[in-house]
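Retro notes (design track)

What went well: tokenization of the new backbones is finally stable.
What didn't: we kept losing track of which sequence belonged to which structure.
Fix going forward: every design gets posted as structure first, then sequence, in one message. First example under the new rule, 619 residues:
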């Protein structure tokens, strides 16, 4: 469709239509065309709207907080996977719902209450204490708010707090409930295990008819995902390096500018002995002065020697320790040095000076980095030329020829980036935005010019789509055969486990029916302690805790099945601290449950509609 529009835009008929359109602008004015009404509400709550700008402001604040917690390399795509856009819009909706409820209840906030709240806000307190009018005005100016806007926001916030406080009153969970949960969580059991792995000779392959019947009866196990055929032009900096040559002077300048990155700091191998008081440390130093070995003297003093290994100045936790260690000209002992931990005596055993990685050692990598930066700059210009070509009506093929660009043809790719053979197609960009665009662009249409996260660009056309479907038997035959064999091995292991369990239920001992298998004592475990490597899979633990003492159970375990005899059921010892901790947790959860139910009721009362299309721009 876009290609047709581009071609049509270059025709004489289109030019006439554009001329008429320009005349209409002159006759009727261009204001309405340049400032159209745009749907910019991210949500509608009752009769009010939450604007996109309000959402962006809260989203930006939450995104920055996430980056501070997880590191500066968090991207918007990662934030979307964490569910940040949805979390922000839901918080805004809850806030607006409570504001509407406060208005419905007629809750009023007086001028005096607003004034006191401002005067008591520490953000507006001067250096001498008390409210600072000038500081208040500067803060509002910095945040682009007038005094009237801020007061209105604060008034709404105070009324919302009144409602929140009414539903957030402390709730005390009952002691009997906490005790019951403590018994449930802390109860321990012991069992005896016999493991039955899925092993043995593979069964003979079934006949063709049986295999086809298996495929027919288990169609859902052999579904193929949706595939799309895509033609694309990809401007990838890494694939452009052979067209770029880095200037040797620029490579040298990059090295000089980053010399700190190539400098390995001086290190000293340090051993340490720590004392509680200075007198003991001084006595220890006296023994060393007489020629005693560090370990021998430390043993006499009742202290231990800690080997800190090779450390640089920045790796020592206290500046005083770093100064003492690096003030020595060479090997030796220094101290005592006092820190919050006590008195330190430090022995330097080996000194390694500062070194710098030579230019020759890093030149190849720097050449690539400089060349890549040049490639990114050139590709930005080329991307504009490509956009102009396509916008002027050129087809993908024509634009590629005109700009000497290769066309990428992908016969089939699924949403995870794999082809029908289960491998990644040659040349497919690993950037998630490419696949996301490939599966959001309508079939037969061109995408807009998109960016790759590594500084590249792409544009694609979706040629066709194959919807999800059951793989034909001929294509799925290896998968069907493997599934049939796995099912037969599973059935055999289950039959052996059931036979063992039947003999145990007759009163036989585990050792008498083991037939060479290890008889394993599990020791005590709780219902949350699944240990698959020890035979205690989640299924085994659940089965043991659902059984009575002496009962025999069979459950799936790692690589097969396990037969378990419940040996003992032990209630937990009484613990006042644990019961109180559970009670506090329950109380907090009950308050949160009340709050969630209240918000759900408000949503039903006022109604909430979220603009998913606008929200998707942040996903």
């Amino acid at each position: 469709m876009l290609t047709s529009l581009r071609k049509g835009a270059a025709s004489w008929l289109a030019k006439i239509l554009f001329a008429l359109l320009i005349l209409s602008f002159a006759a009727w004015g261009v204001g309405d065309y340049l400032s159209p009404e745009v749907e910019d509400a991210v949500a509608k709550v009752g009769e009010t709207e939450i604007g996109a700008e309000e959402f962006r402001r809260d989203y930006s604040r939450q995104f920055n907080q996430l980056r501070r917690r997880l590191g500066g390399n968090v991207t918007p795509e990662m934030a979307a996977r964490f569910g940040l856009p949805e979390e922000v819009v839901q918080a805004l909706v809850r806030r607006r719902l409570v504001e509407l409820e406060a208005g419905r209840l007629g809750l009023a906030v007086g001028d005096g209450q607003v004034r006191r709240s401002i005067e008591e806000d520490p953000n507006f307190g001067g250096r001498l204490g008390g409210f600072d009018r000038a500081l208040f005005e500067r803060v509002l100016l910095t945040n682009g708010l007038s005094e009237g806007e801020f007061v209105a926001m604060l008034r709404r916030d105070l009324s919302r707090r009144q409602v929140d406080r009414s539903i957030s009153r402390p709730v005390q969970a009952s002691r009997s409930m906490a005790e019951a949960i403590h018994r449930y969580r802390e109860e321990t059991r012991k069992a005896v295990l016999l493991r039955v792995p899925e092993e043995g000779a593979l069964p003979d392959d079934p006949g063709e008819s049986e295999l086809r019947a298996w495929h027919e009866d288990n169609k859902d196990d052999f579904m193929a995902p949706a595939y799309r055929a895509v033609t694309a032009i990809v401007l990838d900096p890494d694939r452009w390096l052979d067209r770029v040559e880095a200037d040797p002077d620029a490579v040298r300048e990059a090295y000089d500018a980053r010399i700190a990155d190539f400098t390995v700091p001086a290190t000293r191998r340090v051993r340490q002995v720590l004392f509680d008081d200075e007198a003991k440390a001084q006595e220890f130093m006296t023994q060393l002065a007489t020629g005693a070995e560090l370990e021998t003297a430390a043993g006499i003093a009742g202290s231990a020697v800690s080997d800190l290994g090779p450390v640089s100045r920045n790796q020592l936790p206290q500046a005083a320790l770093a100064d003492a260690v690096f003030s020595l000209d060479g090997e030796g002992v220094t101290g005592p040095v006092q820190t919050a931990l006590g008195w330190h005596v430090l022995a330097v055993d080996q000194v390694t000076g500062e070194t710098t990685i030579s230019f020759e050692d890093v030149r190849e990598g720097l050449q690539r980095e400089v060349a890549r930066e040049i490639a990114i700059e050139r590709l930005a210009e080329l991307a504009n030329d490509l956009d102009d070509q396509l916008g002027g009506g050129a087809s993908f093929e024509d634009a590629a020829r005109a700009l000497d660009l290769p066309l990428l043809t992908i016969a089939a790719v699924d949403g995870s980036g794999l082809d029908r053979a289960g491998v990644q197609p040659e040349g497919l960009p690993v950037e998630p935005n490419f696949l996301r665009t490939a599966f959001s662009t309508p079939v037969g249409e061109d995408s807009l010019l998109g960016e790759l996260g590594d500084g590249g660009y792409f544009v694609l056309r979706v040629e066709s789509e194959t919807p999800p479907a059951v793989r034909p038997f001929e294509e799925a035959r290896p998968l069907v055969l493997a599934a049939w064999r796995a099912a037969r091995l599973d059935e055999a292991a289950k039959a052996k486990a059931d036979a063992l369990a039947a003999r145990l239920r007759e009163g036989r001992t585990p050792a008498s029916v083991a037939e060479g298998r290890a008889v394993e004592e599990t020791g005590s475990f709780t219902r949350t302690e699944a240990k698959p490597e020890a035979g205690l899979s989640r299924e085994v633990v659940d089965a043991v805790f659902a059984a009575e003492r002496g009962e025999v159970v069979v459950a799936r375990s790692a690589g097969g099945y396990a037969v378990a005899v419940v040996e003992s059921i032990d209630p937990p010892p009484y613990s006042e601290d644990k019961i109180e901790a559970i009670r506090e947790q329950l109380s907090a959860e009950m308050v949160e449950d009340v709050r969630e139910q209240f918000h759900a009721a408000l949503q039903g009362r006022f109604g909430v509609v979220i603009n998913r299309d606008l929200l998707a721009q942040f996903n």
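Added context from the reviewer: Residues 359-391 form the longest helix (33 residues).
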